[in-house]
Amino acid sequence: MHRRFEEELEELRTKLLQMATLAEASVSNAMAALVEADAATAQRVIDGDREINQFEVEIDSFCIELLARRQPMAGDLRFIASAMKINNDLERIGDHGVNIAERTIELLKEPMIKPLIDLPKLSAIAREMVKNSLDGFVQHDVDLALTVCRRDDEVDHLNNQIIHELVSFMTRDSRVIVRALSLIMISKNLERVADLATNIAEEVIYILEARTIKHHHREEDVHRKEN
Fold first, then answer.
1. Of residues 208, 191, 214, 3, the one with CA closest to residue 99
2. Closest among 123, 64, 116, 120 to 96, alpha carbons compared
3. Would you call 147 helix, strand, or coil by DSSP?
4. 31: nearest Cα among 99, 90, 106
5. What is the CATH number of the domain that holds 72?
6. pLDDT (tens digit per residue) in 197-212
7. Host domain of residue 141
């Protein structure tokens, strides 16, 4: 019985990683569509949202079944409960990929108002944060999860910089307002992807050490240096 439960937990871990692959691809492909001016790729991202949604429901049902049948304790209970939260965060990451793709299709109807430099940079940081949060999950690496949490300020700063620049464009030329607002929304979606990666990293730390560090990243850094 115990061996079968371990196999089920491993199956859950595998399902989460498959979900993560789909969610990451949604954001990555949406940004590629924007940079390469490829409306067909953007539409494929939108069409792929149904698969992500169905997978989220499947994982959620699997978790509920495990809780009901196995009645886990301690670490196993933390893992399953956190898996449900991570699953939801991954689905929302996929949603942000779809949002970016939808904005991209609208933007491609007119010339771009400026070269895309900071948005791809922000995308790369956000996607790396997602990857590292999941690597921390797979490798049972608390320090890697903490590196994700520490990058939150970097993302916020770059997002604010992008918004400030685009607002200045709108101030100078009212004809670009709609396009600038779409780019601002893409930036905010990428910021949210980074926020969700941070949520996942926090859940990884909770799974591994039964500690909640939400809203206390800096205090955690000080604590680890002192020890």
1. 191
2. 123
3. helix
4. 99
5. 1.20.58.220
6. 999 999 999 888 878 7
7. 2-226
